[in-house]
Amino acid sequence: MAIETEPGTLQHPGGGEPTGAKDTRAWWQRPAIHTGVLGAVIGYLVGYYLGRAISANYQQISTSDAHDIAIVLGFLFLVIGWLVGLGVFNDLLRHMAGRPMPDTEKTNGDAAGVARYFRVTLDHKVVGIQYLIGMIIYFCTAGLLAMGIRTELLSPVHHVFSSSTYIELVGEHGTMMMMLMTSVILGPFGNYLIPLMIGSKRVAFPRVEALSFWLTPAAFLILLAAIPLGGFHMGWTGYPTLSVQDTSGADAYAFAFGLMGISMVLAGFNILVTVICYRAPGMRWSRLPMFVWGILGTSVMMTLAAPILSGGMYMLLTDRTVQTAFFTDNLGGSTYLFQNLFWFFGHPEVYILALPGFGIVNEILPVFTRKPLFAYKVAAAGMVGVALLSFFVWQHHLFDSGINPNMRPLFMLTTEMISIPTGFIFLVGMGTLWKAKIRFSVPMLFALALFFNFLIGGVSGVFVSDTGADTTEHGSFFVMAHFHYTIMGGLIFAFMGGCYYWLPKMMGIKLNEKLGKWHFWLMFLAFNSTFLPLFAVGWLGQPRRVFEYALRLQGLNDWVSISSYVLGFSILLFVINFVWSTVVTRDRETGNPWDARGLEWQVPSPPPVHNFEHIPVVLSGPYEYGDPDAPPVADLNPPVGVLVGALASAETEESEA
Amino acid sequence: MASVEAQASGSGQREPNHGMRIFIISLVLGVIFDALFWFLLSPHMPPGTMTSAAASEQFDINVLAAIAIPVMIFIFVYFGYALTVWRRRPGDDTDGPALHGNARVQTTWITVTSAIVLFLAGFGTYELIVPQGAGAGEGPAPIWTPPGAKLTVAQQIAPWTPGQVLVIQVIGQQWKFSYRYPQFGGFETSALVIPDHTWVQFDVTSIDVIHSFWAYQLGVKADANPGVDNVAFAKTDQLGKITVRCDELCGLWHGAMFDYGKVVPVSEFQSWASSSRVELASITKLLPPYATTYNPTVIPLFRLGPVVKKLGLFGAGGGYYPPQDPQQP
């Protein structure tokens, strides 16, 4: 049966037609961030009181100030209170009570107000902007902590911080970075752009998506709460037995990291289902933009790996509070168990940090070379290959730990095999540059820098994957430099490129190009000047996370520290550019500034509330540059009756139900 | 790829063979830099050649670098060439050629990268097995061992004669390493002294949290897990000083957890060991009997041991549970 009009209900966020009244209360009476904070404070106090009441009779607790049970329960109720205050559960409760659903903000007239950014919302575009701002704030916080680390390392003998403060800085920096990096691209760009790129009016689970964002402020504030609780002193890896013995700050670490794991599962799952189920007619797998492939691979890894993290952190919390012994060797547990759990999550995670970057550069390259993406299928295979292989490499973190020596050749093989699909990305990039007409706009500069940095990061990764060479490199600054090259040099450069490329789309505002070039060159040079010498520092014998090192390495360390300040300044330039362009000058950009073919650029900037007026029909791939015969990427206004296939059958089922 | 493209571009003048140019530039640079690296730098690469393990690690790093250098040069040259030659000319707003792929280039790329990777995995496996685990901790049941490795307590406490495998138990604690020599009566000392031209077996363990024993010049790195005997091997080839650092974050003073040791001639080692054995005899008898892991709560004080334990009068137990805990299993 052909349909005359598009199904309204099928694409309405929330699943059903709003039947209730419009919400006409004043902003401060509606649930938003301020009620969330109120709920969080009340929740923490309730949880803390409960924990005290439950555990008061344990001799060990009454004779010491070890009140981990109270703290963890406090955090748990804090999160619940925060979510209740934000109104996350309101629709659910209404549904359970059989009350009519309220009119959503999209149809509520105030869809354009600033207040919506401080509320739980069903609009993926609002969630994307929330993520963007949140991630920049987290990134700058964690970056400042890194400046603190480098300041301490200016001298091997004179100390700025106490040994305790130094280790707290190291742990906070590492954990916060690892938490935010999982979502730094998937959160803002994934949530905002995926529906636009696949031709959908919505994501699959808008409430789950909103929840995934609103868990992150809780996770980050709880992680920061470790500092007043005494800090945690075991780095971002949190190996027991040290983490079991540590002060109460370790509760904050485990709780926050586990909570972020839940946020990752929710974010990944939503995008996974969206990409699979919400593609517009004609958006075949062979026409999917490479950014969507990258985010799809990331989502698979997030959905499957992050539960292991949450589980491991939960076990760590019960070890610390109710004295289970999962990780205590002489009571039947094993410290290796935590290392296995942690890295079974941790290694897919580092590819969670790589794939979105690959996706962004593959998206940017064709636009600024004015050529089709070279070897599309190879690029997609690279993304999928990395995502699959990433689950079979984790024990290369444990080459010296004494676990399973006979498995080492296997893990060496799988680890090195990952460089094959990673190499695909280089093949695609290099092929796309072949005989191109390269335009050196700021996004393109960042994309090219990713190849430079990731080459160094990837090749150094082969050095650490070789068990023999790894004996020297494991746990040294060599490894530290290696993963900063892949994460900072790969993911963050791609993130910056994505900001310059997509902010005209997301905010309708173009960032200042001249300041952007300054930002790029300063960041590129300072980044390499910071991390390249660290390979040598590691080879010369400096372990990670030390505050005292060999005197002969002071020259190199000082060079690195000073470079890191310049690197910090370059990030400040970005923030200045961001604030200056979006708040002060507001240089409007409503069209398609890069002349890109991507489906997301075919709608006005910023996109209208429902993304597309009609579900578009995709006619060709997004990278058909240089082909004068290529059809337009999509028909945004398909003739009535053309949407026969999937939508029609869905409509039939809907009407029969 | 170049010839295919030359036809496609259809410009009037003859298109230079870009692929050949890039290949020749990177070949020349690759050979030059590889030669420079191999003859000038490679003998000085970490971690030196003091032991068999260190030498094999240095060889691994050198081989990996010798492969990595031409690969990186090729990619850098390609990018440099592309960004120079194929930049947009001012006023040119046309698109580039609609090139979607090239089966031959793709096949070549995948074949070459796969071949390199498989070679590296085979090479790495060989270099792991043949040098007896390449200095990495192999856990309590090592599978790549030198001849005469001493894997049971009975073997480990039999007196040592030159030429045999020397067993050194490395005990990590917050925040120092101590070394126990079971073949010399089991004395425990903070000095790491090793004889030259000898296979050394490090039995690394911990009494509290996880540490990692990194003897840089020896090329040995093994995590010290409480309750676990992590064994690593190295054969000394040169005299000299050793730097030992803890390589796994172990708490506040992790950064200050380092010490120094030395490799000395066999005769000097023997006289040092026997004099230390005599000097430390009064302390050695208070220590727990030698075992592959170190449990300081085992106290050989006649029948006082259990009493002392009951009173909680011992040091770090490696466990979290104080004795008065109601749930002690």
Structure notes:
The complex is a heterodimer of chains A (657) and B (329). Chain A is an all-alpha fold. Chain A has helices at 33-55, 59-62, 68-86, 90-97, 124-152, 163-181, 186-198, 206-225, 242-245, 249-277, 290-320, 335-352, 355-369, 376-389, 408-417, 419-433, 442-465, 467-473, 477-506, 513-539, 554-585, 645-656; strands at 617-618, 634-635. Chain A has two domains: 10-18 and 122-585, Cytochrome C Oxidase, Chain A, CATH 1.20.210.10; 29-103, no CATH class. In chain A, 61% of the residues lie in helices and 1% in strands. A two-stranded antiparallel ribbon of chain A has the order 1-2. The relative contact order of chain A is 0.10. Chain B is α+β, with helices and mostly antiparallel strands and 329 residues long. Chain B folds into two domains: 2-86 and 103-130, no CATH class; 153-284, Cupredoxins -  blue copper proteins (Immunoglobulin-like). In chain B, the strands form two sheets. Chain B has a five-stranded mixed beta sheet with strand order 3-2-1-5-8. In chain B, strand 2 and strand 3 form a beta hairpin. In chain B, helix 2 (18-41) runs antiparallel to helix 3 (52-85). At the A-B interface, helix 6, helix 9, helix 14, helix 15 and helix 16 of A face helix 3, helix 4, strand 7 and strand 9 of B.
